[in-house]
């Protein structure tokens, strides 16, 4: 059978879910094709491929665009449609309006395999675990315990058919799942969905990981590696020891990864430095312990945050630290304190996001309960991370100042005394504007290119392939 995989948009990393689903499909002798709606026309792709199955992978955003595209495509060619990814998993109630033949909930490789086998044989697939169809809602099956049993991810499907073949940075994942329960994260929903169905956190072996990196590096440009896991390492264990011994010899490319601040110690940092770690992502979220622990539920134990951040720098590893501005119950002083903390902690690049309560998270429930958002009109999409706060607990002036911190906080953290004091007065007095936005973009680009991902500017076919996005610092657990 011919399977056309479709996503809403393709940013600066290929779609790993599709890579594994394509590998599963090819393992049972099916052909796979790729379409990204921001760069390709679905109608044209359907006409060209004549797929038997169109498989959509949909994140938090993009559902409406995918739904409309599917309705148009089915008019010109008959196929079976299935949707997987975060949207159907977190919002299964949207199945009826989606127009899909099936939803796949949760971890998708084996449900997708069983679905394909049923379709190929001409049999009903209503009873396949993890699937929602018009006739049945099935429970999820246990999580995959041994990730190495999965076929090697089909990285070529997306990379070779997109601009990513030219990109200097390539992204990899060594784990699945996150053990933490931050209030703003959808991982809590997954924890509830899979309660009693296996360990939440699982890891590929070092050998499996290195083989994938070597394979991608042998085919495509790869000057820098990013590990996109919620948390790359939790302690200096045997896995990290083996990785630090073999990665420099077999790959030898500088890399970036996400860490959880309260799990970092000297033993971990020694191994990461030995492996070739160039920079790390970390989240502090709020300088207020009350907000951090009681509202955002980032339980980081009683850590000396600044001391830990300085320790990372002492090992020669650059730091990208994220703060969440305008969190419920935070004060303006809490958010301004992020600038001073970044200075004292010698943070390489302090990054900011505006707090966005996502549906199906504890933070969303908190904001609804306290009338901070109106659920009937609230959009809550990821674009709000880079916009003024919509929470009702802040005045318009407070929202403006907090958004100015988003735009210029990293600048202020780099300015010497007393210039920083003058700049602080300006961001309190002047509303956000295009000039502030330009300043933000310039500093972001400079630090991410040179100090975080160590990238070179590429002008290939008139397009710059700088592999980063404004949401890079959002997902660390």
Give an overview of the whole structure.
With about 475 residues, this protein is of the alpha/beta class. The chain has two domains: about 130 residues, Flavodoxin domain (Rossmann fold); about 230 residues, Alpha-Beta Barrel (TIM Barrel). It contains 18 helices and 16 strands. The strands form four sheets. Strands 2-1-3-4-5-6 form a six-stranded mixed sheet, with helices on both faces. Strands 7-10-11-12-13-14 form a six-stranded parallel sheet, with helices on both faces. It has a two-stranded antiparallel sheet with strand order 8-9. The longest helix has 19 residues.
Main sheet: strand order? 2-1-3-4-5-6
Highest-level CATH class of the largest domain: Alpha Beta
Tally of strands: 16
Radius of gyration: 23 Å
Q: Shape from CA axes?
A: globular
Whole-number average pLDDT?
A: 92
Name some characteristics of this structure:
477 residues; alpha/beta; Rossmann fold; TIM Barrel; 2 domains; six-stranded mixed beta sheet; six-stranded parallel beta sheet; 16 strands; globular; disordered C terminus
């Amino acid at each position: 059978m011919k399977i056309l995989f479709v996503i809403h948009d393709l940013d600066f990393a290929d779609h790993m879910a599709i890579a594994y689903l394509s590998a599963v499909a090819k393992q049972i002798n099916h052909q796979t094709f790729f379409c990204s709606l921001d760069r390709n026309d679905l109608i044209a792709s359907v006409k060209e491929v004549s797929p038997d199955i169109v498989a959509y992978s949909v994140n938090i955003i993009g559902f409406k665009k995918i739904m409309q595209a599917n309705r148009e495509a089915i008019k010109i060619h008959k196929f079976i449609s299935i949707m997987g990814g975060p949207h159907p998993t977190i919002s299964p109630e949207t199945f009826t309006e989606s127009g899909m033949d099936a939803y796949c909930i949760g971890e998708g490789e084996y449900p997708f395999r069983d679905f394909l086998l049923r379709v190929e044989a001409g049999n009903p697939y209503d009873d396949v675990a993890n699937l929602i169809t018009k006739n049945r809602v099935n429970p999820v099956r246990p999580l995959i315990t041994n990730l190495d049993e999965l076929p090697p991810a089909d990285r070529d499907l997306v990379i070779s058919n997109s601009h990513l073949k030219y990109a200097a940075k390539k992204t990899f994942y060594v784990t699945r799942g996150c053990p933490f329960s931050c209030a703003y994260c959808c991982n809590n929903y997954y924890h509830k969905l899979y309660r009693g169905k296996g360990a939440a956190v699982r890891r590929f072996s070092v050998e499996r990981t290195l083989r994938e990196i070597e394979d991608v590096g042998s085919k495509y440009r790869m000057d820098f590696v990013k590990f996109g896991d919620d948390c790359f390492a939790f302690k200096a264990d045997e896995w990290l020891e083996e990785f630090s011994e073999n990665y420099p010899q077999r790959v030898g490319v500088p890399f970036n990864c996400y860490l959880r601040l309260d799990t970092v110690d000297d033993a971990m940092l020694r191994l990461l430095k030995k492996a070739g770690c160039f920079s790390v992502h970390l989240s502090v979220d709020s300088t207020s312990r009350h907000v951090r622990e009681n509202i955002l539920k980032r339980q980081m134990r009683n850590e000396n945050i600044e001391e830990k951040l300085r320790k990372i720098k002492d090992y020669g590893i650059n730091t990208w630290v994220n703060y969440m501005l305008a969190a419920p119950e935070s004060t303006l002083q809490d958010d301004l304190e992020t600038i001073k903390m970044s200075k004292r902690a010698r943070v390489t690049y302090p990054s900011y996001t505006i707090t966005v309560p996502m549906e199906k998270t504890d933070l969303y429930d908190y904001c609804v309960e306290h009338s901070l958002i109106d659920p009937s009109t609230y959009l809550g999409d990821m674009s709000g991370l880079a916009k003024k706060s919509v929470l009702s607990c802040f005045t318009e002036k407070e929202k403006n100042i907090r958004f100015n911190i988003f735009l210029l906080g990293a600048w202020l953290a780099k300015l010497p005394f007393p210039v920083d004091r003058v700049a602080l007065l300006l961001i309190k007095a002047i509303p956000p504007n295009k000039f502030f936005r330009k300043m933000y973009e310039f500093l972001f680009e400079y630090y991410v290119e040179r100090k975080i991902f160590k990238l070179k500017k590429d002008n290939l076919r008139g397009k710059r392939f700088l592999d980063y996005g404004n949401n890079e610092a959002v997902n660390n657990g």
